[in-house]
Amino acid sequence: MSNCNSCDDSSCASQTKGAQENDEQFQRRQALDSRLCSIDKRILVMSGKGGVGKSTTAVNLAIALLQQGHRVGLLDIDLHGPSLPKMFGLEATRPNGSEEGIIPLDFAGLKLMSIGFLLEKTSDAMIIRGPMKNSAIQQLLADVAWGELDYLVVDCPPGTGDEPLSAVQMLGTKAAAVIVTTPQDVALVDVEKSISFCQQLKLPIIGMIENMSGFICPHCDKRSDIFKSGGGSKLAEKYSIPFLAQVPLDPRIVVAGDSGKPHILSHPESECSHALEHAAEEAHKWWQQR
Q: Which residue range(s) make up the domain with 46?
């Protein structure tokens, strides 16, 4: 890891100890900032509602960016319900350490880290709250040897609590959000809270993805709007947010998540995969236009 003390950027805030910081806090901040210097863009995948397919979106969005030629890491900061070990079939795998820090797991070139990889058993409960959550997320960012990345995709737990707040505060001005929803009104109401969260924290919003946007029958190809359709695009229009994609409901996504091979790899020709690839392309364009 690069060292802030050897950096010649005198304008960087990491060069100076804050008035309210003790030596330990200053050193921790330097370690975090030094690590983040090697990560160009940071995408927080968020939703105010659980069960909308946020982790599935984060996983497949990260792989789509990787397939488009970018260097990508994926960080799971859902401390109470980490999904990455199961979704990549790596429940029994643990990371190694080095002088540089914890070595993230590698899945076809995608760098992975989750609190689930650090637990003795995947069924162990993570009993933690408040400042301890902040410290855990800081360690997952600062103590992991991410290396040079074009994108770090961060899978946040639902809501607007400690975890996303800590992540936004740590990731700095190179962070932006992708918001995930489903079409029904009960999800959209909660997703508006995520939009408000981003606005209050001045976190730019890359765009919105509508999951479960219609069901396409695998037998007859007929489309049925089980959870309505178009609510996400209307909400995006209301807040002048780019609308990235409508991802249909596909039973194979569930199978892919349980089998450890993400959908975009196991079914690259599906409508879901094409939608998620389009979302990744639009996200990259958004960054280029900044």
A: 20-288
